Amino acid sequence: MQRLVRAAGTACRPLAEAAPFSGGIFAQRALPGRCGADAGAVSHSPFARGAQGLRFATAAAAAETQGRAASNRGIPIWLLGFPAVVCAGLGTWQLQRKGWKEELLRNVAARIHQPAVSLKDLDSTPEEFTRVRVRGRVRHDTTALVGPRPRTIDGRTRIGYTVVAAMDDADSGVSLLVNRGWVPADVAQDPARKGEWQPAGVVEVEGLVRGSEDPGRSGVANDVGAQQWHYIDVPLLAQAMGLHESTPMVEVVREGGYVEERPNTGMGALKGRTGRDAGGERGDMSLPVVRAPEAFESHAVMPVDHLGYAFTWFGLSVSAIGMAAVHRYARSRRSRLKGGPMGLGKRPTFRV
């Protein structure tokens, strides 16, 4: 049944009534007999405006949810899991490096603590870190200063050079290179003080067979013509001193020499162990300063460091796996909740 509203000077029109079963509780349908003035009031009522705004908000939220779901679908799970695989591989590699470093240090320790042998008793070129005994004269005219290199001795940092020279072994008649140790720069560059670190006559030393240094340590190339040596290149030094490029080099060691320590700061420090105050004034330090045999039982990167690196990489791998799992769960949840009322997703269905 229709209700009519009559206004002065106007024809009556049917009122609009709600149609709860077609378009929602806020939907309206026009009825004949509604007066024109009242029709405008109904179309601009707070209920109508609220319903229209709610529909717009619901549509925007649903579009945003669908857009996010579509965006997340564009990131494949395997792409998120790839970093986890890479980190796990790097962790495994560090464990392999740890085993290799342990084996290397064991071999070095076994060689440096063996009794020194004479060069004449060796049938072939000795392996690196073989302990040998040499007796003869040092050719001081072939001396090469490698550096400059800082040394921290008993808390004092000084600049100096590693001294390398040719030497003729009197027992075997073999010529070789000898790394005689480290000398402060002010002493090495003062001709009047050469007697402090260049012994005259026949000398007998013990040392370890060593190879060339890594060029990356200095970052500067050697200049043979200018006699500027920044790192030890055994074949190049031998040729510059008139010897064959296959000439071995022996680094002099002495019991009680200095060793490179590894404090908690990670910065190496050289502690004097010559039985004298290595950081004292001139004459208190035996020159050249040589290392102790046990100094070669350490490395810049020890096995425990490789173990720490491995744990770091494995931890990153686990974190990457967790991130991938969270992303997959979130994407799956958004997919299940997609399309619900007001953009909040479908209501869950409970089964008894």
Short description:
This protein has helices at 36-43, 46-73, 77-112, 185-188, 234-240, 303-337, and strands at residues 4-5, 13-14, 17-18, 28-29, 117-118, 131-153, 156-169, 175-184, 202-210, 249-261, 269-271. With 352 residues, it is α+β, with helices and mostly antiparallel strands.
Verbal overview:
With 352 residues, the protein is an alpha+beta fold. Among the domains are: 1-44, no CATH class; 113-300, no CATH class. The protein contains six helices and eleven strands. The strands form three sheets. A five-stranded mixed barrel has the order 6-7-8-10-9. It has a two-stranded antiparallel ribbon with strand order 1-2. Strand 10 (249-261) and strand 11 (269-271) form a beta hairpin. Helix 3 (77-112) packs antiparallel against helix 6. It is elongated and about 105 Å long.
| Overall mean confidence score, pLDDT | 76
The stretches of 5 or more residues where confidence is low (pLDDT under 50) are: 1-43, 261-284
Please state the overall shape, judged from the principal axes of the Cα atoms: elongated
What is the H-and-E element order? EEEEHHHEEEEHEHEEH
Q: Can you list the strand order of the major beta sheet?
A: 6-7-8-10-9
Q: Rounded to an integer, what's the Rg over CA atoms?
A: 43 Å
Helix content: 25-40%
Secondary-structure-derived class:
alpha+beta
Query: Helix tally?
Result: 6
Describe the main β-sheet briefly: 5 strands, mixed, barrel
Q: What's the total number of strands?
A: 11
